[in-house]
């Protein structure tokens, strides 16, 4: 308003501002609203132990703020409060902006309660899991309800029909019910891929029919049609990997 010909007093009154404050705005070389804030409103509760946190991140850049915050609350009982997680998340965001990995992009799909489940096998070998120092190579049969993201896993050692049937039945019993439809990828244990008149293998189709579940398969070259279980693979293995990182850092 001052630049438009109004006096300082009139401009201050119209803005609900003290005349002295209005004068500071008028005389400032850089407008206040363009200035970057270079002060902190409160002390950083993680400042003293940040070198320790940074060492964890340097060893395992995939660690997340929630995982480390939980670790700190156990290691330093009573020192940190739940509301301070946001501060640690901001510190992580800044650190990972310089040292971390790029974020993954997710695309939402529309689902309905009790309608659809998806399943797939996933290898756990890349996590380097050991038992008493001995490598433990194995797979997980991973089952997911696409609306609620309820999930179940069964340890197995091969993507064969027996592992598939065992995994599905374990999931149904632990769920306490069944979905209307169950979708799989084009795994040969479930799907006939070579021009047979039947879409699914006999034992697989018979088991789902006995439970009253309609069998579905993804289209060739469309792994995104089983996207919920694929993303659940990612989240599950990431959570396991987070715990392994902490164990290895202890």
What does this structure look like?
This protein is an alpha/beta fold and 250 residues long. It has three domains: 33 residues, no CATH class; 50 residues, no CATH class; 129 residues, Ribonuclease H-like superfamily/Ribonuclease H (Nucleotidyltransferase, domain 5), CATH 3.30.420.10. It is built from eight helices and seven strands; from the N terminus they run αααααβββββαβαβα. It has a five-stranded mixed β-sheet. A two-stranded antiparallel ribbon has the order 2-3. β6, α7 and β7 form a beta-alpha-beta unit. α1 packs across α2. The longest helix is centred in the C-terminal third of the chain and has 23 residues. The chain is elongated and about 85 Å long. The N and C termini lie far apart (62 Å).
Fold blueprint:
Elements: H1 8-15, H2 19-27, H3 50-59, H4 65-75, H5 85-99, E1 116-123, E2 130-131, E3 134-135, E4 139-145, E5 151-156, H6 161-175, E6 181-184, H7 202-211, E7 214-217, H8 227-249
Parallel strand pairs: 1-6, 6-7
Antiparallel strand pairs: 1-4, 2-3, 4-5
Helix pairs in contact: 1-2
> Structural class of the helices, strands and pairings?
alpha/beta
Predict the CATH topology of the largest domain.
Answer: Nucleotidyltransferase, domain 5
Full CATH superfamily name of the largest domain: Ribonuclease H-like superfamily/Ribonuclease H
Mean pLDDT: 82
By DSSP (H or I, 4+ residues per run), the number of helices equals 8
